[in-house]
Amino acid sequence: MPGYNLIRPLLFRLDPEYAHQQTIALLQIASNRPPRVARLTERYRNKIPKLPIELFGKNLSNPIGLAAGFDKNAVAFPALFALGFGFVEVGTVTPKAQPGNPKVRVFRLDQEESIINRLGFNSKGLDAVLGNLSAYSSRIRPGILGINIGRNSDTPNERAIEDYLACLGAIYEYADYVVLNLSSPNSPGLRVLQQKSEFNELIHAVMEKRDELVDKHSDKLLPIAVKISPDLESEQIDVIAELSLNHRVDALIATNSTIARTAQVSHKHFTQTGGLSGKLLTDQATSVISRLASTTRGQIPIIGVGGISSAEDAWNKLLAGATALQLYTALVFQGPSLVRQIVTGLAERAKRYDERNFTTAIEQARNQL
Ligand SMILES: Cc1cc2nc3c(=O)[nH]c(=O)nc-3n(C[C@H](O)[C@H](O)[C@H](O)COP(=O)(O)O)c2cc1C
């Protein structure tokens, strides 16, 4: 397989969504052939220094995860693990298959290393995704697998709980953690589920359902995470933090893409409707993490995501209070060697505070802020 610096110019000549489909198709082919996964593992994963952290009571080889939306239908995660991610989140999956919004719906802002997308939960649906998950279920995973779930766009919010519960029950056996996506800007009305009464009702129902499922699945307690928007007001973040503490939510994922356009950017695509991700989101996402960390008093792990494209960005999110990190957009612009680059840079920074234990190093660095 040629290096990303050779592939990138070809991919960037294509429509962004088509380029992504081609990439996923290649990664799917690799995923279906264990010797190819082994070769990718040799080339990428095995070259990444170990930087262990604990997430959901499990040990990860490094804190960098792949964010949701890259492998929406869980067709390519074995190859994605081979690229070196400590954890991979597939989805968003919706109960029924749905096409999403009309095309064209993904736009690259090359100079800004940012993307605007309004895909709108294009998903092959639960049945297809379950088929893919079960086909790969005998494979040993070198990291943990999250499954991100959402509601269909024609399901009104009053019935959204049914969609989340259906997804939760179906994916339970395959996931290492599940994510309730309440923050896609492209699914009309979805983000209302982050408001106090809607959020409370949904989390209550999900936690109750999980208690039932634990018994059915030989005591497996699936961690529940909630993914939130970067466009929430501080008070709304506080409400989510408090309710998440009350309901013992296992993690908060901050953040999804933004509908805000605060920067001065002259790119012709900057005014496209949709969620903005990548470098233009970095600081906004970090602020949300800081606020969450202070309101939750560090009692809920935060997975920090939004515009991480360097070790410096990753380090800043850890200092702001994140336990683990995810990225998507920077992978498009920089390719898979980015994971090694970030992990190596984090390890160097951490060493200044504690030679041996990464988690202690972060704590020390936070104390010195
Ligand atoms: C093309 C595209 C599709 C996405 N699809 C999803 C999705 O299905 N579910 C979700 O929770 N987040 C989705 N996201 C958001 C990412 O998971 C992530 O939260 C966001 O892009 C910020 O991270 P980044 O700046 O590293 O990309 C998508 C992002 C992009 C660019």
Termini separation: 43 Å
Ranges with pLDDT <50 over ≥5 residues? Answer: none
User: Biggest sheet: strands, sense, closure?
Assistant: 8 strands, parallel, barrel
Q: The CATH topology, please?
A: TIM Barrel
| Strand order in the sheet with the most strands | 3-4-7-8-9-10-12-13
Which architecture name does CATH use?
Alpha-Beta Barrel
Radius of gyration: 19 Å
Any idea of the CATH class? Alpha Beta
User: For this structure, what is the CATH homologous superfamily?
Assistant: Aldolase class I
Question: What ions, cofactors and ligands are bound?
Answer: flavin mononucleotide
Which class of secondary structure composition applies to the elements? alpha/beta
Output the helix-strand order.
HHHEEEHEEEHEHEHEHEEHEHEHHH
Q: How many distinct folded domains?
A: 1
Specify the helix fraction band: 40-55%
| Counted beta strands | 13
Instruction: Give average pLDDT, whole number.
Output: 96
Care to give the gist of this entry?
The protein has helices spanning 4-11, 16-31, 34-43, 77-82, 125-135, 160-171, 196-216, 234-246, 282-295, 311-320, 329-334, 337-351, 358-367; strands at 53-55, 58-60, 64-66, 87-93, 106-109, 114-117, 144-149, 177-181, 224-228, 251-254, 275-278, 302-305, 324-327. It has a single domain (4-367), classed as Alpha-Beta Barrel (TIM Barrel). 41% of the residues lie in helices and 15% in strands.
